[in-house]
Amino acid sequence: MSSDSQFCHEKGLAFLEARSLTKTYQVGSSAVHALQSVNFTAMQGDFVVINGPSGSGKTTFLNLISAIDRPTQGEVLIQGVSTNTLSERQLAQLRKDKIGLIFQSFNLIPVLSAAENAEYPLLLQRLPKTERAQRVQAILSEVGLADLGKRRPNELSGGQRQRIAIARALITRPKLVLADEPTANLDSETGAQVMDLMRRLNEEHCVVLLVVTHDPEVARYARRQVRIRDGRLMEGEGS
Amino acid sequence: MQLKTSLRNVFRNRRRTAFSLAVIVVGFVILVSVLGFVGEALQSTKTSLADETGAVQVGSEGLFENSSTGYDYLIPPGQLEQVVAIVSTMPGLVGVSWQLNFAGLVGDEQGSTLIVGRGIVPCSDVQAYECIVSSGSPFEETSDREVILGVALARKLGVAPGDRVNIATGTVSGNFNAATVVVSGEITYALEALEEQLGLFPIAFVQRLLKTDGVERILIRIDDVDQAEAFAFELQQHLQSASIPLVARTWKELNPSYASIESFYGAFSGLAMMGIAVLVFFSVLEVLTISFLERSREVGTLRALGAGRGRVFGSFILEAAFLGIIGAILGALISVALVLVFNAIAFSWIPPGAAIPQSIQLQLSPTVIIMPILTVLFSTLLSAIFPSWRNSRIEIVRALQSV
Ligand SMILES: Nc1ncnc2c1ncn2[C@@H]1O[C@H](COP(=O)(O)OP(=O)(O)OP(=O)(O)O)[C@@H](O)[C@H]1O
Ligand SMILES: [Mg+2]
């Protein structure tokens, strides 16, 4: 594994920390413990694969880290700041500037072209038009879709869509990228291409990459693996 | 890009958008018809009243306040000349005329009936209606022993143009006087009740009949009826500075019923606008609620990417604004076309209390188009507020889970 990238200067610093992270859903009179007291740390430049059976709490874990959901107990610290202390507006800002999200079913906006989908986060950052255009061009080349920018999502294949979604997640140069089953809707060959791309981005852009997956093929790409089971997190591969 | 996104979203579900636009356009057309009808009705009432009375009248206070006894309100010839001289210098003037009216009896050996006699300046610029007789002919310039009778009065008397009738009344000093005149023509009149009593005479004849050289009132016609208040105000000041003891009154003051007609039509238009606003509001609300909810997952995605609530809310409002604007443009184009066609066909009807059929025309003034535009824009935006607000506050995780 080509672990030591020369671009990853700040390697070795804790970027992300989860402390006794707990999420309990109240369903009628019974409580569902989706996540129970999870402790987790990710270093700058980490590439972590998270696996575990269905319903074990993987998506819940990612949702709490990206702060689109709030924990029942415990906290998430990003670069030392607890997301519990941030307002709705500040959380939106955090996601916009520091976090990239990749969804299992891509979640592209159908009325926008591929290039516009990728550009959207820059719009949120209010970047000037010329710089936006440059960055869109660059990122589309990087994911190998420079010629397809004008197409709408429904005119792209699954793999192409997911690559646009990756472009959208990376265009702001986030420090943290969360991907929930990014290859589940792709065939194994396309899945491998997408994972190659992710690994390259991890190495070249020094992003912390957290990838949830069921797929053992995908898991091979990671430098580190954790497993979630019944809402508890365990380091290592074990089954 | 936000504009582009919202605009594209408008046309995303064509059938639904077509439905919303259809409701907006239909509402728009209805509203234009109502406002166009009302506008035309008011305009024609206004013109016919102002034609009848002149835009501005000058007379003694006693005449207008109904406080005179006998004929002591008459304007002597010297004052008439002064007023005409003043008025002639004023801008916007079309013509000036004068009247001397009386009540008396009309008839022949067979019997007699009441007549409301109007002594007028024949075929003046102000009241030219005696020139448009329905049978017979207008006054001849050489003769002033003539009368033009209301059609209904002529029928009642059993006379036709060429026949003679006798007129009897009291003079200004209270004595009795009578004369024989030739029926020169017949005239239809907007009010049936008055048509049964109306007789028009050359004013010189009425002055001889009443044994006076005075006139009752001076009628002024101006090129823009809507300037009547300003004209009357200025004239009043001229009268005062010339110490002429007469007052100027506008057609509106002389026809107090116009104000109530106006407020009736105002309330009618207001109700129509509210009705259309409510119709558009509920139809568009239903459509937007569905199509916004369908996009929960997209809202969740954008919010997860870091879009604020305000941005999401704004983009939905913008989308509704586009819908409203497109609807308003379509509505305006379609209703202008329909009104032009309708006016070209020129349907006619007889308004209540009127004797002559009129063609129904719809007014196409700026107001008639602008009010519907404001109404549909307002209600479209209003109907977007709640669904937009609700979508902007949706829980992100829940929104992402929805299909
Ligand atoms: N909104 C919710 N209300 C109630 N229970 C929920 C809710 N969301 C998740 N859960 C429950 O929390 C547990 C963890 O769910 P989560 O989606 O995190 O699992 P997962 O590991 O991502 O599963 P999968 O591999 O199927 O995606 C499950 O038992 C699920 O039923
Ligand atoms: Mg999941």
Précis, in short:
Chain A is about 35% helix and about 25% strand. With about 240 residues, chain A is α/β, with parallel strands linked by helices. Chain A has one domain: Rossmann fold, CATH 3.40.50.
Global shape of chain A: globular
| Helix and strand element order of chain B | HHEHHEEEEHEEHEHEHEHHHHEEHH
Q: Give the chain pair forming the largest contact, with residue counts.
A: A-B, 27 and 23 residues
β-strand percent of chain A reads 25-35%
Overview of this protein structure:
Chain A has 239 residues and is of the alpha/beta class. Chain A has one domain (3-231): Rossmann fold. In chain A, 33% of the residues lie in helices and 27% in strands. Chain A is built from seven helices and ten strands. A six-stranded mixed sheet of chain A has the order 6-7-8-3-9-10, with helices on both faces. Chain A has a four-stranded antiparallel sheet with strand order 2-1-4-5, with helices on one face. In chain A, a hairpin with a 2-residue loop joins strand 1 (14-27) and strand 2. The longest helix of chain A has 18 residues, at 188-205. Chain B is of the alpha+beta class and 403 residues long. Chain B folds into two domains: 2-48 and 258-401, no CATH class; 57-255, no CATH class. Chain B has 14 helices and twelve strands. Chain B has helices at 2-10, 14-53, 61-64, 77-88, 151-157, 192-195, 203-210, 228-241, 251-254, 257-293, 296-305, 309-345, 366-392, 396-401; strands at residues 56-59, 93-108, 111-120, 135-136, 146-150, 164-170, 176-187, 198-202, 217-222, 247-250, 348-349, 358-359. In chain B, the strands form two sheets. Chain B has a six-stranded mixed β-barrel. In chain B, strands 11-12 form a two-stranded antiparallel sheet. In chain B, strand 11 (348-349) and strand 12 (358-359) form a beta hairpin. The radius of gyration of chain B is 31 Å and the shape is elongated. The two termini of chain B are 25 Å apart. Classes of the chains: A alpha/beta (239), B alpha+beta (403). The interface between A and B is medium-sized, with 27 and 23 residues. Bound molecules: adenosine-5'-triphosphate and magnesium ion.
